[in-house]
Here is the input.
Amino acid sequence: MPPTAPAPLTFAVPKGRILDDALPLMTRAGVVPDAEFHDKHSRALSFACVDSDMRVIRVRAFDVATFVAHGAAQAGIVGSDVVEEFAYADLYAPVDLDVGHCRLSVAEPAGQVRGNGGASHLRVASKYPNLTRRHFERQGIQAEVVKLNGAMELAPGLGLASRIVDLVSTGRTLKDNGLVETGTILAVSARLIVNRAALKTDERVAALVERFRAVVAERKAA
Here is the structure.
């Protein structure tokens, strides 16, 4: 009997801005989703790749890390904020893609900035409970995190929390909602992530890492 062909590699990508920034790098690294991937009317979540034994799945950013860490996908692209928030032992981020730059910041109402003022407890709205708690713990503050998945900027004005922790790019959304940055927790960029076991056992994953490394090096040298 002829040898069984290996299962396709699964490559997870997030929806949104990071994907837009990463697509040119994916193309140069040989990860090219088929035409349906770019069809805005398609409800598909899994896509074949052109001239490749790979498939691309498109999921929420936080889910990219979960799929890869648990081996359901062997590789993917996600922001370093997600990598740091989950800190999965089975997740390895070997390549900084140097795109999708933003920052994870603390913000509070512009007219009420008072620092921590010796406070030992704060209520903070964020979808990053682990990073938020660790940030305030380093300052000797216990942070009660109210987990929200969006509309973070509304929380202080409605009395839900005294401040927020969220991703910031230009700061325009904060300003439009009467908030100002008062601290930066983490500088964020897009990362290639892989499952550690897959990297050790599947030479295709190691080759994929090297292709992305070469693409990033070439881009920086241009």
Observations:
- The mean pLDDT is 93.
- The radius of gyration is 20 Å.
- DSSP finds seven helices and eleven strands in the chain.
- Helices lie at 17-28, 61-69, 80-86, 129-137, 172-176, 196-201, 203-221.
